[in-house]
Each structure stands twice: as structure tokens, then as C-alpha cells.
């Protein structure tokens, strides 16, 4: 908690803070009351409209969707990371023919919407005889677009390893490739782990593009469900909560990893 | 190439909508983001909690889920607005979380003495934030804000998935009629790349003029 912007409060400041606390709390409560009234006024609070979400078949269906989301996220994360590592190494390569295309790829893909890539795979590739299965229609554009982000993360990680490390590797007679593989990459991997986890949250969020592809991940499943049972807002709220729980846990993991890494670094510097 | 020329009016209209979405939602997101940052660094615990909850919620929800919820869900409880306006508000609310997070790291980068000096000459919390801390914080986060702007431009394409006819949706429609995906999608991609390049150029210039070297 940064205490940069305020001192230990005196009696007057404490009074003001109490007033602000009350106002903040009241505003939150008022917002909640307003929302509930709006729901009630339109009959969306009826128990019958929420009760289905307390039944197991409904959750089995939604968890199936979540499973597909997870599968798509894991496969595209693996592909994007592998491709991203190649691109990141390419951008750092001393050889021009590797550096220029890698840099070009990253810069171009960063500035094209993922949805446009999805449309290309959905509508352009079939015309040229490449009609992928539904799963890959979602995974391929996601991997293509997130590979660029992973490339930047890996590049930053590799650059953050002290020069002395690779110099030492070269000095004991390792080839540049082995120095990278045995000395620099393992250290870089440890440093970029938190960023990789938070980038994966972004990727998991993007799997909701399955809505467009009509691949039955969580969001598309919920669309089908809502069209079937007519409980639009209930379904989407429940699904949003599911996304929230999953992504918050992942974000928490990223923060924990980061804190642990910082703690290790601190311990190391104090020991020296 | 002639496909693009034949359908120039539709594609142009789509580009205009994309620009409207981008400009309006970035403006809204900037205002909301400053408010969220102010909440997150305030001395009052409840306000800090509200700010943190806001950022946590909107950073962890997919934008498309929010758009679907707002466009198809909200009419169910009697809240119905123009489609474009809904999309703008949702994107603004979503991106405000990212702007708030970037600004907060900027506030943390302002050196401690600045806040202490502001208090020492008797400025209140709001005054010191407005006149001393935020102007400096903004200068340190020009580059991150530029990146958020580019990401926001790309995210406006998602509005196309819920029925707004933006550039992506217009390109898709033209392709459904003409079935010439390569020129159409490459053209649309180039337009986005051009927008991002402009944004990158402007942030580069801004950063050069505004950055404080410490």
C-alpha cells in the first residue's frame, strides 16, 4: 500500500475519511439496490428464473463448455508459446534473415484485431481449400495473434538476463546455441513466468471468440442455452461469474509467482 | 482490388464507425480510468476497495462476454440504448480498468518527495493529486497508454460480433457478397494497421515531448 499521498490522519482528516467511507458505502449499496429493483420491476428476480442454475444438469452443461474453453486455451497457449519462443529468439538473432521477418510478424500481428483473423480462418481459408475443423478455427487465429505477445515477453525475459551469464557461457567454450539453451533460457523462463500466466488470462478471455466461430466453448454454450430456455440475462450473468472465478484465480497465481520471485531476489541481494 | 473500390461506401462507413467507437470509448475510458486511479490511491479504505474491485472485475472478464451481456441481457431488465452507444459504454468501462492500472503504476513511479512537498505546502489530497501527482504520472505512462489505445482499437472489432457494423463487420459482409476474401480482409487489416501506426507515431512524439528524464 503506497502511503505516499497521505500522512497519518489527524482528527479532522479522520472525520473526513469517515464521511468518505459512509458516502462510498452508501453509493455502492444504492447501486446494488437500483440494480435489484430494475431486475424485480422486470420480473427477472422470480425464483423460477434462477432456480435452473441450482440444478446439476445445467452445471454439467456449463462445465462442459468450460472444459472446451480450457482445452482451447491450453492448446492455443502451447502453440502460441512455442511459436512465440521461436519469434522471440528470431528477433534477438544476429542474423538479419531471422531478425527482420520475426520483427515484422510481431509488429503486424499486434495491429490486426483477433476477430479479423478469426474471420480470415472462417471465410477466407475455406475458399482456398483449407477448411479446418471447428476447434482449430478458434485455436489457429488465437495462436497466431498471441504468439506475437509471447514473443515480446520472451524477448524481454532473455534481455533481462545479465550479459555476464552468456559471456561466461561462451567463455567456457559453449556454442552460442548451447549458451542460450543451457544458461540464458532457463533463467529467462523463471523470470517471465508471471507474465506468461497473466498473458494466458488474456488468451483464455479471447477463447470467448468461440461465440463467433460457434465452437461450443463457455460463451457459445451459454448462447445456445439462453436461446433454448429464454433466460438471457440469468445465463450470461452466471457465465460471466464463471469466467470471473477462473480468471481471478489465474491472476492471483500470477501475482503470487511475482511476489515469490521478488522475495527470492531480495534474499539473494541481502545475502551478497 | 476493384472489389474494395466497388464497395468503398460500405467499407468507408465501417471505418467511420470504428473510428467513432475508438475515439468515444477511449475518451470515456480515460475519464473513468482517472477516477478509478484516484479511488485506488485514496486514503479511505472503502474507496480503495471499490477501485480494486472494479479493476479486478473488468480485467478478468472477456470483453465479448460483457458486450453480449449488455446487448442481449440488459434489454431484459428494461435498459435499452442505441447499439453503438451500448458498445461504446461497454468498451469504455472495460478499458478503464486497464487505464486505471497503468495510471496507478505511473502514480507509484512519481517520487515520494513530490507528494510530501505537496502536503507540506498545505494541498489537500485531491489538490495534490490533481496539480502535482497526476500530471507527472501521466507523463511516465504515455507509452503504456498508447499501447492500451492500440489494444482498444483492436477490441472495437468485437463490437462487430454483437451487431455493430464496424470495419470488421463491414469487411465480413462485403466478403459474403463478393467472396473475394484476400483483398477485402487484407484491406481491412491494413486499415487497422494504419490506425495503430498513427497511434504509435503520436505516442512516440508525445513521449519525446513529455517524458521526464530522471
Automatic annotation (TrEMBL), chain A:
CDD domains annotated for this entry?
TM_PBP2
Entry's transmembrane regions? 71-90, 102-125, 228-246
> Does the keyword Membrane feature in the UniProt annotation?
yes
Per the record, the major location class is: membrane
Q: Name one GO cellular component term.
A: ATP-binding cassette (ABC) transporter complex
Q: Name the PROSITE patterns for this protein.
A: ABC_TM1
Q: Where in the cell is it found?
A: Cell membrane
- Provide the alphabetized UniProt keywords: Cell membrane, Membrane, Transmembrane, Transmembrane helix, Transport
Indicate yes or no for the key word Transmembrane helix.
yes
Q: Which domain of life is it from?
A: Bacteria
Show the InterPro entries listed in the entry: AA_ABC_transptr_permease_3TM (IPR010065), ArtM/GltK/GlnP/TcyL/YhdX-like (IPR043429), MetI-like (IPR000515), MetI-like_sf (IPR035906)
Q: Which GO terms describe its biological process?
A: amino acid transport
- Which GO MF terms does the UniProt record name? transmembrane transporter activity
Q: What is the membrane topology noted in the UniProt record heading this document?
A: Multi-pass membrane protein
Q: Where is the ABC transmembrane type-1 domain?
A: 66-254
Family the UniProt entry places it in: Belongs to the binding-protein-dependent transport system permease family.
- Write the protein's name: Amino acid ABC transporter permease
Automatic annotation (TrEMBL), chain B:
Q: Name one GO biological process term.
A: amino acid transport
Q: How does it sit in the membrane?
A: Multi-pass membrane protein
Q: Which residues form the ABC transmembrane type-1 domain?
A: 15-203
Q: What PROSITE patterns does this protein map onto?
A: ABC_TM1
Annotated source species: Nonomuraea montanisoli
Gene Ontology CC terms: ATP-binding cassette (ABC) transporter complex
Question: What is this protein identified as?
Answer: Amino acid ABC transporter permease
Q: Where in the cell is it found?
A: Cell membrane
Keywords of the record: Amino-acid transport, Cell membrane, Membrane, Transmembrane, Transmembrane helix, Transport
NCBIfam families registered for this protein in UniProt:
HEQRo_perm_3TM
- Where is it predominantly found? membrane
> What are the TM regions of this chain, as residue ranges?
12-39, 60-77, 83-103, 148-170, 182-204
**Which family does the similarity line name?**
Belongs to the binding-protein-dependent transport system permease family. HisMQ subfamily.
Q: Which GO terms describe its molecular function?
A: transmembrane transporter activity
